[in-house]
């Protein structure tokens, strides 16, 4: 039986009304003038989505300068008559990226949705969080709107793959805009000192010059479960039960609140950073700008995404059912050498959120500069000086 706190889902307060809620049907809608119906459909679509994408080589043994079909890179043309990089890599999108409901209403609604999601990118689908080379479903596309959607690149083994992808997204855009909002998960092997080939270099540089926002993912493993305040080699680790850190859920529409309205102050003083050096993200962006000779008229809007992930348990949060399953499970302490001092989990009345926080770069100190002097391994930092924005996804 679920305890009371598992039933408090903060996402229910935001987003579109659920179909099963009483009193949400407007039966006179078909009698409205067509231009009014179109405006309503358009307003329904004008919401931000985050689209999870993974980029891998065409084959595990291939190279970024090779194509899977034997053709030279950047010699293939798409249906718009624009050159694309070719079969050099695989675009893998989450299978949970569902098309808008408007595609299934009527012809009028579908036409509005098709015009709104004007970019159609060929891709494969990956079934689980842990798969890089998936059992793909071929001949699939994900639909993308450059002005509202954020492309979250969760994995890319070489910078050339990211360059090719950004080039191809713009090639598939009939307006030639391409990527406007980008989110990256950066590993230490995502070097910027590569020799980049082909027309993709120019398209990538132009995209960096016009990019509206750049987010960097900082994953809090174990999410709202528990944070180990002092890691090894400390002989006496402490524990902090962090209720308020959002549990990351992507590939969905979301609402962005200017500040998190919940009672999160006590937890902001105990955020587990893991092994990620936040200063590396700033230097990574600066190296991209330098390497591609980017001259921006205005600074890009940089944010750090902070969300809890259950990926170590191969768990993916996609709907209410999976969220309730997660919250109903017994507390797990795997990965900690010393068990928490009690099995009682305090409940401060903080509602659970599926989504993520957004911090300014200066909110999370670089490794080695924490006031506490703790190292980067298992470090917990105090970010209470910066109250984060809160992004809340729609949970079906």
UniProtKB/TrEMBL annotation:
It comes from Apiospora aurea. This is 2EXR domain-containing protein. Pfam families: 2EXR (PF20150). InterPro entries: 2EXR (IPR045518). Residues 26-151 form the 2EXR domain. It comes from the Eukaryota.
